[in-house]
Design goal:
The complex is a heterodimer of chains A (334) and B (165).
Chain A: E1 7-9, H1 14-24, E2 28-31, H2 37-42, E3 50-53, E4 63-65, E5 69-73, H3 78-83, H4 85-90, H5 92-100, H6 104-107, H7 113-117, H8 130-134, H9 163-170, E6 174-179, E7 182-187, E8 207-214, E9 219-225, E10 236-244, E11 252-260, E12 267-268, H10 270-274, H11 284-299, H12 310-333
Parallel strand pairs in A: 1-3, 2-3
Antiparallel strand pairs in A: 4-5, 5-8, 6-7, 6-8, 9-10, 10-11, 11-12
Chain B: E1 4-10, E2 13-19, H1 25-32, E3 51-54, E4 57-60, E5 73-75, H2 88-95, H3 105-118, H4 124-130, H5 141-152
Parallel strand pairs in B: 1-5
Antiparallel strand pairs in B: 1-2, 3-4, 3-5
Classes of the chains: A alpha+beta (334), B alpha+beta (165).
Chain lengths: 334, 165
């Protein structure tokens, strides 16, 4: 498959990349690993005038453990995150999520955590070849006025299938966005626009610099369901975090539940999680209730557009959440 | 869009080529350098038949721009054998019937080669996990797993295995 034409720009450092972004704005796209971007370009879903290569920007690839947080550079390959001891110990959900992304040959060297978070939303009516899409009217995401996933929908219902984002949202991560002369930090759960066409609230001249994961003695876990264990995107996934109370070690003080691959953004479900506060770490009934509550809240957002049937995916939400909660609880006890 | 002259270091030899920015490494390998060992199947990173090594790590060449491969040590399936002498892994693939139509084989070999470099004694689970990103439509996975296991540990391998001397 041929790639459309573009100009290749190669900044030498971060400063240069931000300058180029400030000049080209929406006409340019950042190329890190390319495992998502180049596929979309090959399918003609995206035709940027220029690509800004981040190849020489080694300053974006690092994992730093600090007293109260882990900082991961946006250009860090997924394989480095999987192999990282601090991430395995203190942010296990992320380690588990990265391990599930694509396949080893995508994770190593090419795929980056920044690219995983910023991957575009998907829909099996939209992520198709030029030829397939030319045979029907354009959908919302393609610049038209129709939604094939949900009848009479007035907006795009594409699904965010990022493994990394779901896990990171459960971990309460923050993103650091850079633009020329400016830097801002946003909570990942505030980062989404609820619009399937432009799912992330990142400006065209901004660059994702790093991900900050706060550490607070919590245990996390990530579970996903996909057709195949490798290559495929998740059709349902769940990330959870449980923090035991400091005084009573077997009691839950804080809980976060995030369900992914169901809606336009990973769904942070504080209401479902609130029922767990004060409960014991081995209270399986409470986990079941929270998982069912998650299913009820998340299922209303579900759209039939990433394979499998809607009923099955919705039912599996509670199982994924339950399994993740059990795993996180077990890890807390050790 | 203008052609750019770049040097690619492939299988230990430098190659100078004129390329357009939108050419992938796979395009350049196959169309300009006649290294047709790496195959293009899906072209979107799903099947793994275009797998090559960059700096010792397996990557999809169909999703790597040729321009991004400058400065990297590239190894393709052509670089596995030493002249006419096949590598252990290649010989093991032949002995175990791990090659059916052969289209996935270059990718499987490169992925397995990278696995064996990282983990010289992988168990079956590790092998299956490593090649999970490579699709074989003849579904000859069992033979491929056997071939990789044999290449890793010829002595300890399955008892009924008796490859040609």
């Amino acid at each position: 498959m041929l790639l459309p034409r573009f100009d290749y720009l190669e900044p030498k450092n971060l400063e240069g990349a931000l300058d180029l972004l400030a000049i080209h704005r929406e006409n340019a796209k950042l190329l890190a690993g390319g495992t998502d971007l180049l596929v979309r370009m090959k399918k003609g879903l995206l035709k940027p005038k220029s690509l800004i290569s981040l190849k020489s920007l080694n300053e974006l690839s690092y994992i730093k453990k600090e007293a109260d947080s882990i900082k991961i550079g946006a250009g860090t390959p997924l394989a480095d995150i999987i192999a990282s001891g601090p991430v395995q110990d203190d942010a296990r959900a992320l380690s588990q999520a990265c391990e599930k992304v694509g396949a080893v040959t995508i994770q190593h060297y090419r795929g980056t955590i920044g690219g995983n978070i910023l991957q575009d939303n998907r829909c099996h009516h939209y992520n198709q070849s030029d030829f397939y899409r030319s045979g029907r009217q354009a959908c919302h995401k393609d610049g038209g006025k129709i939604c094939y996933a949900r009848e009479n929908a007035d907006r795009c219902n594409s699904t965010c299938q990022s493994d990394g984002a779901t896990a990171l949202m459960a971990l309460g991560a923050k993103l650091v966005l850079l633009s020329k002369g400016n830097e801002r930090t946003v909570d990942l759960d505030q980062f989404y626009t609820a619009d399937g066409i432009v799912p992330h609230s990142i400006e065209p001249h901004e660059l994702l610099k790093e991900v900050i994961i706060p550490l607070n003695n919590a245990q996390s876990a990530y579970r996903r369901l996909a057709y195949r264990s490798a290559i495929d995107y998740p059709i349902v996934c769940a990330g959870v975090l449980l923090r035991p109370s400091e005084t009573k070690k077997d009691q839950i003080h804080e809980a976060r539940i995030v369900v992914g691959a169901i809606s336009r953004a990973p769904l942070f479900l504080p209401q479902a999680a609130s029922s767990l506060i004060g409960k014991k770490l081995d209270d399986t009934d409470a986990f079941k209730k929270a998982a069912d509550a998650s299913m009820d809240s998340a299922a209303t957002f579900a759209v039939h557009n990433v394979g499998s049937t809607l009923e099955y995916r919705c039912e599996m939400i509670s199982l994924m959440v339950f399994q993740a909660l059990t795993e996180a609880a077990q890890a807390s006890k050790i | 869009m203008e052609k750019i002259e770049i040097t690619l270091n492939i299988n230990g030899k430098p190659h100078e080529v004129m390329i357009y920015p939108n050419e992938t490494l796979l395009d350049v390998l196959r169309d300009q350098l006649d290294m047709t060992g790496s195959k293009e199947s899906c072209g979107e990173g799903v099947c793994g038949s275009c797998t090559i090594h960059m700096d010792g790590k397996p990557v999809r060449s169909c999703l790597t721009l040729a321009l991004e491969a400058r400065g990297a040590e590239i190894k393709t399936v052509e670089g596995l054998a030493d002249g006419d002498e096949l590598s252990n892994l290649q010989q093991s693939f032949i002995d175990h019937g791990a090659v059916q139509c052969g289209f996935c084989t270059p990718g499987m070999l490169m992925t397995a080669d990278a696995l064996l470099k990282e983990n010289p004694k992988p168990d079956e689970k590790a092998i299956r996990k490593a090649i999970a990103g490579n699709i074989c439509r003849c579904t000859g996975y069992a033979k491929i797993v056997e071939a990789v296991a044999h290449a890793a540990q010829p002595q300890d391998h399955c008892c009924d295995c008796n490859p040609k001397e």
